[in-house]
Amino acid sequence: xxxxxxxxxxxxxxxxxxxxxxxxxxxxxxxxxxxxxxxxxxxxxxxxxxxxxxxxxxxxxxxxxxxxxxxxxxxxxxxxxxxxxxxxxxxxxxxxxxx
Length: 99
Fold this sequence. Notes:
Elements: H1 3-23, E1 33-40, E2 46-53, H2 56-68, H3 70-80, E3 88-93
Parallel strand pairs: 2-3
Antiparallel strand pairs: 1-2
């Protein structure tokens, strides 16, 4: 995958996943969760989504909820993105939040 296309896809994924988290997924009301970064696999079939939150406990709970809803999130991404291969998300806590 060319680098320019890869960067555009990463930007698009951050925007769409943020929108899905805000509208479609039931996260705890007091949890302020954001997408810190995404890493796309070389073939574009997987995306690692780095989640950040104000509290470490909120980040852990959000990652658990989001990883359970991976299939649903992948389905929504497939509807929104016009791609041949829609990347399957995997949610992890951002390394800076682990301290």
